[in-house]
Specification:
This protein has about 260 residues and is α+β, with helices and mostly antiparallel strands. The chain is about 25% helix and about 30% strand. Bound molecules: biotinyl-5-AMP (BT5).
Length: about 260
Amino acid sequence: MTAVPFQTSEFQRGLATNVLGRVVHFRPAVDSTNALARTLTNEGAADGTLVVTDFQTAGRGRLDRAWHAPAGTSLLFSLILRPRIAVGRFHQVTMAAGLGCVAGIARATAADARLKWPNDVTLGGRKAGGMLGEFGLRDDALDYVIVGIGLNGNFDPAGMEGIPPGAASLMTAAGLPVAREPLLRVILEEIEPRYLAVCAGESLRAEWARALETLGESVRVTTHTGSIEGVAEDVGEDGALFLRLADGSRQAVHAGDVVATRPI
Ligand code: BT5
């Protein structure tokens, strides 16, 4: 395990963005970067504000699940975004973030990251990161989107408490420790054009579909109402996954957890 404190000045050196990460709130430790981001949002934080930490005492996944990472090893950050888009397009902001992660990882480490529907980052088919998108409304319009991202860096997740077996990290995938500051820098540089495209009304659906390892797989999706099996055929603009069921019908799923039911 390689744990080195995050250097904000190192991250900012040469950062080629106009919006993302121009304002940075770094904390050596925090409960959850998403929680701090929400507080800052309520205080009027600007579009693109970055919250980053070395350690979370209450890192969160979806449905109040926990996110764990040893101190100083990983990327743990949230972006405060204030896109002027319809509420229904909120998922496209998370898509922009996921695609930026994959492209940034490729640029900084040459590792082949993919996305797993709806919000995982994978390396070699193993979960190496996750995204947590949250939004707030004001007068029925989208006020902010907070995208929190955890990306396993310089530790081996095998056998770690709270991390399921089979998880990966950039270090286990690449065999070498990664420098977190330049990695975060290029990730934000890759998210930005995609985020601005979403703000301009463009669609990321095609790029997202290409990055999703889930498409083409036979899967079981567990949702809050039960589980459903089928072949993951496509994704929609709003982030829905389209499943072809055994009876030939097609069903859209909007949220859930996916497992492959047989190898492709
Ligand atoms: C996610 O949720 O995958 C979204 C995780 C988002 C974490 C970031 S860190 C920065 C920001 N601040 C926060 O408080 N959160 C965000 P979900 O799909 O619900 O997956 C959660 C599950 O992943 C847990 O229940 C564990 O089983 C597993 N898990 C926890 N830590 C992990 C890790 N380091 N690597 C792989 N899997 C992990």
